[in-house]
Fold each of these.
Amino acid sequence: MRDILVINTSVSGEDSVSRLLVADLLIALTRLNPDIRVTERDLGAEPIPHLTTDTVAGVRAMPATHAEQESRRLSDRLLAELRAADTVLIGAPMYNFGPPTALCAWFDHVLRAGETFSYSETGPQGLLTGRRAIVIESRGGLYSEGPGQAVDFQEPYLRHLLGFMGITDVTFIRAEKIGFGPGARDEAIADAREQIARTVERLHGPVY
Ligand SMILES: Cc1cc2nc3c(=O)[nH]c(=O)nc-3n(C[C@H](O)[C@H](O)[C@H](O)COP(=O)(O)O)c2cc1C
């Protein structure tokens, strides 16, 4: 692991649990390998624009107008950040049972036929193989068990889109029941920190 692309998406600034845990994981990874290079893309603080009628051709067709060329440039820049990374670390709160729309807008810009996936005779093929993703999910409620499981549109969606680009090695770290009061929040953070420690150990061997 040398080049990490960190994508934060929470709009909650310093109160954000996912941002806290992303920072924790980065500290642990940097301690183990001080040479890692980190590129940060903050979609919560500086969202990229959603595609519009004026800009969609910049991503999905041949850009012609100024607005389309601008959106092609942004898409190229985001793609370059993604390609340069061997590890993508995403901080993803659950908003309305799915990922933040800012993250969906990012996928709209990087899912480009011929760049991150292609169509073959056997169906679509992801082109960004040889990379891993770690996704830190923060949720107000509980979705990993019980009735909430059926309405978790966040994790399956993220797993599918990353896999669609060829990133099939995905670790999810969940911080759940954040909305159940301060005690539950602390417990969720402690539990997620244990998941982080296990993930780091799996990637680098035991940490003493
Ligand atoms: C706009 C919005 C929508 C949310 N929707 C859900 C939801 O559908 N389910 C849920 O469990 N929590 C929901 N929450 C709560 C967040 O998932 C929770 O506060 C989480 O900690 C946010 O991550 P963060 O702390 O990194 O910002 C929502 C929060 C916001 C701001």
Amino acid sequence: MAITIVFANQKGGVGKTTSAVNLGAYIAEAGKRVLLVDFDPQGNLSSSVGADKTRPGVYELLTGSIEPRAVVQTTDVTNLSIVPTTSDLTGANVELVDQQRREYFLRKALAPLSEDYDYIFIDCPPSLGILTLNGLVAADRVFIPMQCEYFALEGLTQLMESIRLVQKRFNTRLVIGGIFFTMYDSRIRIAQQVVREVIGYFGSKVFQTIIPRNVRLSEAPSHGVPINKYDPNCVGARNYQKLAEEVIARG
Ligand SMILES: Nc1ncnc2c1ncn2[C@@H]1O[C@H](COP(=O)(O)OP(=O)(O)OP(=O)(O)O)[C@@H](O)[C@H]1O
Ligand SMILES: [Mg+2]
């Protein structure tokens, strides 16, 4: 049975996708079987590993119109696979709203794949809508990437409310697996203050590794490979590798 982790934060551009792909790549490199699930109609995760978005993907998996294993694509990284997004997922957003037990679609869809992997990583869109809700219901743990800026803290309250709602009504297994900082720039004074406040509130839930701002991380997706294949020696790569070690160590 895989450990299913959802990357969630309704704030846009905080590093959900970058973290899912690069943590996935380093955990795969460590010998674990990892399945990435691109649950964002933007399709950034699919692009980040050069997946073919014209083939059946997560939408077909949700609707059950295809054998689950048929939507999985391999990547350039050994042990790292992906269920890509499809543009139809935008439609699923609307279609799901009227369905009974609409919160459980992704969980049901991923169940048959769980045996094949050690980790399943779900990347969510920047909202707390039905797609992110499905992600939270499907997961054992939620990972929250945060940018070190003042508004990051404001969004956090809303996210915590959604997580509590899911824990109470839909998925009692769900726990906060970890919070980590991305795009850290020590020259920005507020950054250090945000880190201190979040550690003060969440304590040991906060991972020790902080991901710095590093341009190589933003370049890698345009080559369709994770950072371990693009520039394994850059500071961003080294920190994602360290963070991956922490994730594995937490079990
Ligand atoms: N540590 C970093 N250093 C520099 N650039 C980064 C870093 N992490 C992410 N980026 C870049 O910042 C942008 C936003 O990152 P990303 O797409 O991972 O965020 P996201 O939370 O998934 O966004 P969205 O909410 O739109 O899905 C991207 O262009 C990405 O390449
Ligand atoms: Mg994203």
